């Protein structure tokens, strides 16, 4: 279960957020049932959100639609209190406001807005967030140095600094970053100490980064200051997801970081 913001420490396992990048509610349900007691929460993102909606709309019969809907309801019942809705809202303020307001009924623990959408849209998301934590998305972990120049006209570090400042100005609760920018942001800890740091691009030592470009191990990311670690394929695509989740929790414990909140 996601940690209580009033607590000073978390168990290592509670800092793991599993990315449910799957294509059916049934597959997601299997993973949640396997891992619910071993991790802190689950992230549902663009792939799965879209897949659920399309499958429900295109169901060939009422029986199939009812089956899918029941799976979804069971899944979200299990995710109550530990759901991270990674919708990555990125639109005009009116649209971001409406999406945030609609999502509030689901009572997700966290939801995401692209910081590059701008401070005005970010502020209306905060106004409509309800009890959820608003998390800013920084530079995607698939970006390399020159990708950031092409998109933002500046290197990754400078873009992340700008986005973290947007997050503070807009009243956000946290920011998502690749683990490699965590140490850089710590140089500005007087500005960003109040932001939760959520690291993506976590990979086991000597493993393939897949399409991620700026990766670190769970131990390295924790030592760099990550509050939460989003881990997807290294757990969900493993032969034994349960064992992989336990190994990541051991890595986090080995970092021996006493995070103060």
Would you mind describing this structure in some detail?
Helices cover 45% and strands 14% of the residues. By secondary structure, the protein is an alpha/beta fold. It has a single domain (12-254), classed as TIM Barrel, CATH 3.20.20. An 8-stranded parallel β-barrel has the order 1-2-3-4-5-6-7-8, surrounded by 6 helices. Helix 10 (218-224) packs parallel to helix 12 (241-254). The protein is globular.
Walk me through the topology.
Elements: E1 16-19, H1 25-35, E2 41-44, H2 46-57, H3 62-78, E3 83-89, H4 93-104, E4 110-114, H5 119-127, E5 133-137, H6 145-152, H7 156-170, E6 174-177, H8 182-186, H9 189-192, E7 196-199, H10 218-224, E8 228-231, H11 233-236, H12 241-254
Parallel strand pairs: 1-2, 1-8, 2-3, 3-4, 4-5, 5-6, 6-7, 7-8
Helix pairs in contact: 1-3, 2-3, 4-5, 5-7, 10-12
């Amino acid at each position: 279960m996601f940690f209580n913001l009033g607590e000073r420490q978390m168990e290592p396992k509670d800092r793991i957020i599993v990315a449910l990048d799957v294509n059916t509610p049934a597959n997601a349900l299997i993973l949640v049932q396997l891992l619910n007691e071993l991790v802190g929460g689950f992230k549902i993102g663009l792939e799965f959100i879209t897949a659920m909606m399309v499958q429900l709309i295109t169901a060939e019969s009422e029986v199939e639609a009812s089956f899918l809907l029941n799976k979804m309801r069971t899944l979200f019942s299990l995710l109550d209190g530990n759901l991270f809705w990674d919708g990555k809202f990125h639109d005009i303020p009116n649209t971001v406001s409406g999406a945030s307001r609609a999502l509030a009924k689901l009572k997700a623990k966290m939801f995401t807005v692209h910081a590059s959408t701008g401070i005005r849209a970010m502020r209306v998301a905060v106004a409509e967030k309800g009890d959820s934590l608003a998390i800013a998305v920084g530079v995607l972990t698939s970006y390399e140095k020159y990708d950031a120049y092409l998109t933002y006209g500046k290197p990754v570090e400078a873009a992340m600094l700008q986005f973290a400042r947007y997050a503070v100005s807009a009243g956000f609760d946290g920011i998502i970053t690749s683990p490699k920018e965590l140490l850089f942001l710590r140089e500005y800890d007087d500005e960003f100490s109040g932001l939760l740091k959520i690291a993506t691009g976590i990979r086991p030592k000597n493993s393939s980064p897949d399409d991620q470009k700026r990766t670190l191990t769970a131990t390295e990311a924790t030592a760099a200051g990550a509050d939460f670690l989003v881990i997807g394929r290294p757990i969900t695509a493993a032969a034994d997801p349960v064992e992989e989740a336990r190994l990541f929790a051991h890595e986090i414990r080995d970092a021996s970081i006493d995070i103060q909140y």
